[in-house]
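batch_manifest entry 22 of 60
target: GNAT superfamily N-acetyltransferase
source organism: Saccharothrix ecbatanensis
requested by: lab member K.T.
priority: normal
notes from requester: please return tokens only, no post-processing; we will run our own comparison against the previous entry in this batch. if the run fails, retry once and flag.
--- input ---
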Amino acid sequence: MTDWVSSALAPLHDLTDFDCGVHEFNDWLRGHAVNAIARGTARTYVWTPLGNDRVVAYYSVVPHLVARTELTTSFAGGLGAAVPGYLLAKLALDQTLHGRGLGAELLRDAMKTVVFAADVASGRLLMVDAIDDHAAAFYRKHEFRPTAGNPLRLVVKIATLRKALGLQVHAATGL
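--- output ---
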């Protein structure tokens, strides 16, 4: 358990000092996350210290279709040309939190969000496009598997996430 509050990005959150060390991720949070929420193209969730609105970590989730040709038969599950799911579009910790093992905890938070979304809106997979080999190795430790022909594009079944998180089966479907 951490000393962080996880919540949906809101106007009250202070993004000014966030620095994960990756310019693209810092800029996206400050310049595009709010617009993505307004347009309905991504949802961003942030961590803030207890009693403070300064963002120290974030992740963004996007509904996504994965081309069946990118997947093994097991991941595609006999579905059509595209398999529904979610894309973990961003996942970043402020540099002040690096080296403390919190990346796995932030990923776990994101995975819970996706499982809950799948309970409401369905979806079979969670996909991520790792920014480099180091990031891909991080995701592989958490049961993500590379897609066909791209070692930086990784995928995991929602059912696998549910089991790994110890979450109950969705009450409405019994699945």
